[in-house]
């Protein structure tokens, strides 16, 4: 796969597409915002993150310090200039984004206008609908702001050395704009959190019971078990007092509920008090109920607020840190809830394993199963410990690769192809109140999201065989994605051209989908990080390596006792070399048992040769 090389190729292709002569007749190159969709806050954030995100996650791809930028990075970004011009231009791209996506009063907006599609194409969407803030806009703003702040912090020493007052002032201005957008994104996510309650005998309750009742028990018993399993979750919901959410009636003993993030700020969401800038807290429009897709993007964004890089660099202000703690509570309780539902009952079959996942509004898609996997993975890997749950989740991911016609050939008229294009549609309930038609959000990122989940699960696994199986499927998913890369034209080497895999699709695209491309970039970053991590350890091999080193050390001590260490210079040097080999093997046996085993075998072979040589010398043979 060569993820670092793939990321460099994406950069090269992105610069070739985006940094170009304007179509309005300008003579100097400028950045072209947008791609397959028109420019908006969501799409432009995805486009910019393709440049920023890999550089902040992978040290070898950084370009903020001109003296430390590698030749490979300079070559990939050469369209933007030399080692000094590249960070200046990227700083101005960040500035352009921050100034571009504001309302008439200069307040940051988080809209995804071109990503929302009309249910009735004969009706025209109102400007208010196109401008409404969406949860994905809030979520994307967080990694965008954090990667931008990291980049600017790394670039600032160079600016200071240059002594250019205009650049110093420009950098400070951009940092202020970033923090304003970041604060608005955090408060937006606090006001988009949703807790939906329903009775066991209404439609939503019956759907949830049918989902989790995998062993055919009476509904009354399922409700009781659900309430028992939710005790800690309900207790945590009681602590949510800032923004939307809270208990919302879940404490009633007969109630069932779901938690997560809605598609936008929920209707009647309270304002966040004691915030220095309240201008981004617009009126809520969304249905007060969780959407699985927006829950996943919100959780991934919140997790970045607590990444080691952010904590180590102290990127957040005190106000941002205080509000982020409220988001962390929501993140933890949401993960716990969906892990509980996904594995409800803990028996021989989980609801998650009954593919496809069925939502409480009666929809069934493999894509929803993948989203639940995304929410539950960390809980299975950390809170519950061991590999058993992760192995079961990994088996679901492998099945999804098959059912999604990624590792298997699609049949004629196969419904699974719709998952890739036009994608799974999610109705944005509430947006129709803004004097316009009903609208949907299309989710087309099944394949790159599956690749991300495979690498995430593999990174948490200890069992070598299970990890290897997931990595093998990940290679197949990457082969699938590579075939979907646009081959010709201005957008060559970017994504997505699904017709190259699914010939029956009628659509052919000339421009890139930044929504799809950023998902591939995220998967490549995970793959690169995985490649630099410690290899999985086999417990049986570790035990065997320890036993082998015990024997090697014992034989070595015998040779020392026989006086080999005080023999001639050549023999003494050989016996010392064996001792060093054994010492090194003992140092690495816990982290790399396979290496320790190989070193132990070498030490035993060398010792056996020395013993045989000593016997020959004694007998004169």
Report on the structure:
The protein has 621 residues and is mainly alpha-helical. Helix content is 56%, strand content 5%. It has helices at 3-18, 41-57, 71-76, 85-100, 127-131, 135-162, 165-190, 203-212, 219-229, 231-237, 292-305, 308-313, 318-342, 366-383, 388-403, 416-420, 446-460, 464-483, 514-531, 539-561, 569-588, 593-619; strands at residues 19-20, 30-31, 116-118, 193-199, 255-261, 357-358, 364-365, 424-427, 439-443. The strands form four sheets. A three-stranded antiparallel sheet has the order 3-9-8. α14 (366-383) packs antiparallel against α15 (388-403). The model has no long low-confidence stretch (mean pLDDT 92). It comes from Glycomyces rhizosphaerae. InterPro entries: SCO2524-like. This is SCO2524 family protein.
